[in-house]
Write a structure and sequence with these properties.
alpha+beta; four-stranded mixed beta sheet; 11 strands; 38% strand
């Protein structure tokens, strides 16, 4: 009888350990497909002076993260939107005022603002030879998640109107959002931009698919 009880207890313990390991182990059994390769060829209306902008994503003076957050828009909205802003005026405006913090990393600085339980920040990934700026954003709201997005910006010269003694046309430098790629909650993969090739890969070791390209994306800018 004693040996029978011991045998049953050992069986139960073995089953519990198996179930525990199955729940905690990385999802290595679900392999993701290989990354999708895409090409995009387009002549964007980029200002010839885009590299001379006073405010940038990668060095002082940084573009205020509140501006980037407003251009990205709320997560409840679906589909990409084209948004432009006069970043030179917006960066010193009351509308987008916030205490900007900079956290040093091994690559590019992480620029962010924080208000109570909400935080929004970005890291500059790089720029293509044609002038498309790629920015990796992180957003948290009340601790419910850390949502990652890739944003694509260009600096362009826009036609506008000025009002005063006369109403006249004016060429005004603007920052324009031309695309966004959601990366999901707590993205832990890799992002790189080299030689006009953007590579976005999910983390190795377990299955964490990307929302649109589960196995990753390789985007070549032509």
């Amino acid at each position: 009888m004693f040996h029978t009880v011991c045998s049953l207890l050992c069986s139960v313990l073995t089953l519990c350990l198996f179930l525990s390991n199955a729940n905690c182990a990385p999802q290595q059994g679900h392999e993701l497909p290989p990354p999708v390769t895409k090409e995009i060829a387009h002549e964007w209306p980029i200002s010839p002076d885009w590299q001379k902008s006073t405010y940038t994503f990668h060095k002082e003076e940084f573009i205020n993260p509140k501006i980037v957050e407003a251009m990205q828009g709320p997560f409840a909205d679906s589909g990409s939107q084209i948004v432009s802003i006069n970043v030179h005026n917006a960066n010193i405006s009351n509308q987008f005022f916030s205490q900007v913090h900079v956290r040093t990393t091994n690559t590019m600085p992480y620029v962010y603002y924080k208000e109570q339980d909400n935080e929004f920040g970005y890291t500059f990934v790089g720029a293509t030879s044609s002038g498309i700026n790629v920015v990796h954003t992180l957003s948290t709201h009340n601790g419910s998640g850390i949502f990652h997005t890739l944003l694509f910006f260009i600096f362009t010269d826009s036609d506008s109107m000025t009002f005063g003694l006369e109403v006249a046309p004016k060429v005004q430098p603007t920052l324009t959002l031309i695309g966004s790629l959601p990366l999901g909650d707590r993205f832990a993969g890799t992002i790189s931009l080299e030689n006009d090739v953007l590579t976005v890969l999910p983390p190795k070791g377990f299955a964490q698919p990307l929302p649109l390209y589960s196995g990753g994306l390789i985007l070549r800018f032509k």
